[in-house]
Amino acid sequence: MAKVIPIDGKDKIRLPGPSDRITIVGHTGSGKSQAALWHLSNANFDTRPWVIVDPKGEEKINSIEGLEHIDVGVIPKHAGLYAVHPTQYDEAELDDYLYQVLQHGNIGCYFDEAYLCGFGPGYTTFLIQGRSQRCPAISLNQRPVMVSRFAFSEAQFFQCFALTDDRDFKTLRGFAKIPSYEENPLPEFYSYYYDVRWKRCYRMSPVPQIDIILESIAEKLDAREPRRKYI
Fold first, then answer.
1. Which residue range is the domain that position 70 belongs to?
2. Which of 42, 128, 176, 200 is buried most deeply by CB count within 10 Å?
């Protein structure tokens, strides 16, 4: 995994658990998409479904070998990775879908660029109720100021790459106590990792290369029992 340099003198780090939410922020090209896929590679999609909400057709996501593309509204019945691709005209349909996922429970969701798909109440409800329904979430946010504040208030972890707008940084700082980027600049593809429960911040080196991450995901998908139905 990426090397972690403690800021507060502690060298132990926790990764998101099976019911946790992590919010990952950063401007385009900062490394957040690759980091998010690295977190996804550590998720338990080998024992239950994870749905990727991908409104812009992210190239790295489409490169996942074994990813199944499904229509918005389809609840997957087997462990694995699934992708839905809502458009700006599908907000109401996506809201209903996220309500259904919550009602079903035990399904993880990965939101790519949440500001494109997260304005509806379904996204907010998913974040608020997801932990009790065993529905973890990985949320990517390029513009924190434009996303529901519940993407931050309900997160147990943050991974914070460089931001270019002071308003976005101020929004983030309201929930994650990370150093100022101006006073403590990050090398390229480095990030600050913040654990809400432990109130600890770490400086994290770049995650593994994308080909390594995709290989790890493919191996975990291959390790599933054939069409294993999750509980």
1. 4-11+18-221
2. 176
The answer to whether position 226 is within a domain reads no
pLDDT tens digits along 138-166: 999 888 888 888 889 999 999 999 888 88
Tell me the C-alpha distance between 206 and 166, whole Å: 23
How many folded domains does the chain comprise?
A: 1
**Complete DSSP assignment for the chain:** ---EEESSS--------TT-EEEEE--TTSSHHHHHHHHHHTS-TTTSEEEEE-TT--HHHHT-TT-EE--TT----BSEEEEE---TT-HHHHHHHHHHHHHH-S-EEEESSHHHH--SHHHHHHHHHTTTTT--EEEEES-GGGS-THHHHT-SEEEE---S-HHHHHHHHTTS----TTTSPPPTT-EEEEETTTTEEEEEPPPPPHHHHHHHHHHHHHTSPTTPBP-
Q: What is the pLDDT of residues 67-118, one digit of tens each?
A: 999 999 999 999 999 999 998 788 889 999 999 999 999 999 999 977 666 5
Distance set, CA 207 to CA 35, 39, 54, 135 (Å): 6, 9, 21, 24
Is 48 among the domain residues?
yes
As a residue count, the chain comes to 231
- Structural contact between residues 135 and 126, judged by C-beta atoms closer than 8 angstroms: yes
Tell whether 205 is covered by a domain: yes
Listed residue (44, 1, 77, 19) closest to 223, CA to CA: 44
**Residue at 227 is within a domain:** no
Domain containing residue 30: CATH number: 3.40.50.300
